[in-house]
Amino acid sequence: MSSLELSLEHLQRFPESTLVRLLESASPEQLLSTWASNAGTLPQIREEWIDAFLRLCEQTESFPALQEAGFLSIPGPWSQNPPSQWLLARALTAASDPSQALSFYRGLIPQPLSPRLLLDAAQCAIKAIQWDDAWQWLSTATRESRDYSLLQKAARLYRRIEKADTLPELIPLKVAFLFSSAPQLILPILTAKGYASGIQLKLLTPPFDNVTPFIRDPDSPLYEFRPDVVILGLNYRQLEPLSENESAETWIDRQAQSIRDRWTAITANHSCRILQQTCDLPHHPSDGNLSTTLRSGLSARIHQLNAEILNSPPPFVNFLDSGRLQSGLGETIWNDDRLWHIARQHPATPAVPALADEITALLRAQAGQTRKVLVLDLDNTLWGGVIGEDGIEGIQVGPETPTGEAFTAFQEYLLELKARGILLAVCSKNNETEARIPFETHDGMRLRLNDFVAFVANWDPKDQNLRAIAKQINLGLDSLVFVDDSPVECDWIRSRHPEVAVVQLPDDPTRYVETLDRGRWFESLHVSAEDRNRHALYRSQKLRNQAKEEAPSLESYLASLQMQVRSGPFDSLHLQRIAQLIQRTNQFNLTSRRHSPEQLERLVNDPHIWTQWFALEDRFGDNGLVGLVIAECGETTWTLDSFLMSCRVIGRKLEAQMLETVTEAARQSGATHLQGIYRPTPKNDLVSNFYRQHGFEAIGEKDGVFLFQRTVGGD
């Protein structure tokens, strides 16, 4: 039966795949008379059918006919429902009318999130020279997608924005990508994922299959490049075979030592962060299950090899868990023997986006972009149903039903995040009294009110409430991850606060954990004792805020805190927390230099470097180590290499004592001047006037970095 003979009733019964096949056999006349005429009444059409329809229109040069027949008119037959509006927006873009198309895309974006729709919208915005919209939609599509073809297109669109010289302010990061497999498939995807995270990656790769000489040669381009991060690949295909008469233990020691030798060779020539990939498992081991149960089996040896390199690594090494990725994606997605033998590509193409996501999460942590606060909606997010309408008896949470159990599992996952230092907050459109009831009385709830550092339930717009939450806990909006089940609320926050990471939950609560986890928003390089105590620190901050509101003046409030400062030079006891503070502090950070633990160890032993950490305690509790100073000690001039302070203690005047401490040390050494560096970033405008406010004079600027100086002693 030809498409011309089908009635609208027939067409509405078919799935999209059948409609695509029928469409592809249509004549140019049928393209307009049957398909264009009925497109506005076919709710099942999506991107596959739209692609096919527009491809045929282009092949048959039908866009003028569509225009003449009124299909591209507004309002018109295609402007009535979301699927046909998407078609209209794409057709208008193809017909060189991107400004009209943008209005439809803006209306479509609040629909359930579609990376392809966002990508189409970004392409339209680029044509319309609407760079802010293009960047926002393109970045959201790139973060959300794991479709390799779609991400290839995203990478091309990012290059168009690059060429137009309209990139926003980004964090630069130099990364050496040292895989023995071919890197061509992952590099553009990794670059796009970096852009979507606010990071501009500069990537270096070695000549193919030449990683070891590239590392060992001290004159290698690797060390001229001076990377911030080196990513070392490892996969089962590149392992050396078990020699004749060689024991499994000897083989494991030999392979592990080879990996450690790479770490040593790299850091002997250049201090940087190393991200080491753990080894994945063979797809088709010849000995089947014995590969895991026999000590000499390849799978068993790989398990032991991973355990060996994971055991007490140096502080500058972190790991990318290939085994978790491989098992999560499945063997058929992870491995492609044909691709390996043809192009030396591993893992397989469909697995590349997931690998890029994992790498990007670790790079975000290195760049100080780990999120700190998870802000949660309530209804249909922490429980099923609407508390204001269904009452405490009507909401679903707990083991009584599969749906309720899924909500409980999600809450347990949230408690795990809290245990390692992620702050939890509530932002809900609800009556506050009703919103608190489930936490106080429902047995199925795992979360309780004291698990949150902020609880905002009212009927104000959520963008305003997010701003209030950020102010209450003294963190930037770029520290927040906002989770909601409403597409409208999620799109509203994206449009009002692009710096907030937005997670739109699916309809199925059994997928909530997967959906939140997939963003890897809270990836960290280390977890310290202060991380585990962070919730208590911020709960005590709430008491400080109350005391501040009740105090008659700022001076009396500060005096009432009974603050005590501890400080000392950098040492091994505090080095992990110092490294973490350097990586995570963005707002009160004058130079934003990200020293690695290895670099910090060298600074500790350098006689020309002065270091000092600062901790603050008051009557509400111990804030822990919250500030640090690193200074280069010249004979007459000291220069501040790093001067930073946790946002938890902003407003307590600790920075003045930190500055006075380094000033006095410089004076005691015989120096006459103290120089300060201010390197502006998108996040540290808070300290742009710090030096001027403390008696420094501006003495120069180069490449956007400002130099200040003040007299500390001498003549």
Automatic annotation (TrEMBL):
Q: Where is the BF1531-like N-terminal domain?
A: 174-362
Query: Pfam families from the xrefs?
Result: FkbH_N (PF21211)
Q: At the top level of its lineage, which domain of life is listed?
A: Bacteria
GO MF terms held by the record: hydrolase activity, acting on ester bonds
Q: Which NCBIfam families match?
A: FkbH, HAD-SF-IIIC
From the Swiss-Prot or TrEMBL record, give the protein name.
HAD-IIIC family phosphatase
What is the species listed in this Swiss-Prot or TrEMBL entry?
Puniceicoccus vermicola
